[in-house]
Design brief:
It is a single chain. With about 280 residues, this protein is of the alpha/beta class. It is built from 10 helices and 9 strands. The strands form 2 sheets. A 7-stranded parallel β-sheet has the order 3-2-1-4-6-7-8, with helices on both faces. Helix 3 links the parallel strand 2 and strand 3. The protein is globular and about 50 Å long. It comes from Piscinibacterium candidicorallinum. This is SDR family NAD(P)-dependent oxidoreductase.
Length: about 280
């Protein structure tokens, strides 16, 4: 990363960034990348030991300040608590990387789990955008990164509800990008494909060609303020290009075949977590 880019990140999105889902995967990669550019961090997830270890590592390596907030974003008051915990600092960037999903037939899943996913992936993100959007509008500059998905652009058999939550995030990001531009606030939807972050093991899925979380974080940060959607990773780009000109019903069938291959070893009577533990842990 160039010195000029680092200065831009600090000026536009510093001095503090909030990263949810920071204990693992893409959230952790964003935290590391932002620390490299000198931003102080509020690290949010359920697993406190992992957050404390990451905070200590980033403080030693990059000389930043880090604040650990360990709570469950599935709770209805989580966004209010998060906002209150940041009252004494100047937050310029929100990276809403926490989330989880399910794979397999919807009728084989537990309704409570599906509703919890809806709360974390959609309701919690909406509340975070509202609370931190107020802050960013007042300060006249900043940024928001929302985690969409390769699956957000069409219905996806065997991940129907997970894909629907990501479609919500994609649409929300596209709309907020235009709404908040006059306030100096950049919004981007990050829509990666498979990521090598323990995803396959936790999801009980077979995935080939997975990208590194660092690739996602770096590409997204580079695109923030320049594009509305970024598709990090070869598979996400390839499928995006190849499906774009097809009728939507064909897109659904093609992506269903892709998901079917990833979950072919599962029994139809079971579901598996996609994207990590609930609330992004």
């Amino acid at each position: 990363m160039s010195s000029a880019f680092t200065q831009h990140v600090r000026r536009q999105y510093g001095p503090w960034a909030v990263v949810t889902g920071a204990s693992d995967g893409i959230g952790r990669a964003f935290a590391i990348e932002l620390a490299r550019h000198g931003l102080n961090l509020v690290l949010v997830a359920r697993r406190e030991p992992q957050l404390v270890a990451l905070a200590g590592e980033l403080q030693r390596t990059h000389g930043i300040r880090a604040r650990v907030l360990a709570f469950d974003l599935a709770q209805p008051d989580s966004a209010v608590r998060l906002d209150a915990a940041c009252d004494d600092i100047d937050v310029g960037l929100l990276v809403a990387a926490a989330g989880f999903g399910t794979s397999g037939p919807l009728l084989s899943s537990a309704l409570a789990e599906e509703r919890s996913m809806l709360s974390v992936n959609c309701d919690a993100v909406l509340a975070q955008c509202w609370w931190f959007g107020q802050r960013l509008r007042r300060r006249g500059r900043g940024g928001v990164v929302l985690m969409s998905s390769l699956l957000a652009f069409q219905g996806t058999p065997r991940a129907a509800h997970y894909a629907a939550t990501k479609a919500y995030i994609q649409s929300l990001a596209e709309g907020l990008r235009i709404e908040w531009a006059p306030h100096g606030v950049d919004v981007i939807a990050c829509a990666p494909g498979p990521i090598a972050s323990g995803f396959a093991q936790r999801a009980n899925m077979v995935m080939n060609g997975a990208d590194r979380p660092a690739t996602v974080a770096q590409a997204t940060l580079r695109a923030l303020g320049r594009r509305g959607t970024v598709r990090p990773g070869l598979l996400s780009k390839l499928l995006g290009w190849s499906l774009a000109t097809l009728p939507r019903w064909v897109q659904v069938r093609v992506i269903g075949q892709v998901m079917g291959g990833m979950t072919a070893h599962q029994q139809d009577s079971s579901t598996r977590a996609v994207g990590g533990p609930p609330a992004g842990a």
